[in-house]
């Protein structure tokens, strides 16, 4: 992700919204630091195996979709002046690209679950060790709920982005 963040601005002569590529550049570089931080602490998390895999999947989906969504905004356009306006709708894009970009950016909210599970695992909560099935069920339920919320917000952008 670090390397992709660094090379994202190469496309800038052909991009509709150059500010979107700048955002993709910054997001790629900064999120790579998040990946490095999580990679450092991941082996020390005391979470059940399934819950840890949910956290891993949430982290990968959220960070990559955020970066790719931002890259799409730059490539396919978000206006010359503004990055994302009108509740995440991209004014320069219509149809598929608008929905794809909005879905990708909405999926980045899965980072909340990844960070929450990482904090719980890093603190070494004894509750998760004693109740492995409950921890697995709760983490899977929150994962599915966040996916459903992302899809709902994609097709109902008036509820997206507060």
Set out the fold topology.
Elements: H1 2-7, H2 18-41, H3 49-76, H4 96-106, H5 110-123, H6 126-130, H7 132-155
Helix pairs in contact: 2-3, 3-4, 3-5, 3-7, 4-7
Q: Identify low-pLDDT runs.
A: 79-83
- Sequence of secondary-structure elements: HHHHHHH
* Percent strand: under 5%
Which bin fits the share of residues in helices? 55-70%
**What overall form do the CA principal axes indicate?**
flat
Number of strands: 0
Give the overall average pLDDT: 79
- Count of helix runs: 7
Radius of gyration: 17 Å
Number of domains: 1
Verbal overview:
This protein has one domain (2-159). 69% of the residues lie in helices and 0% in strands. It has helices at 2-7, 18-41, 49-76, 96-106, 110-123, 126-130, 132-155. It is flat and about 55 Å long. The two termini are 28 Å apart.
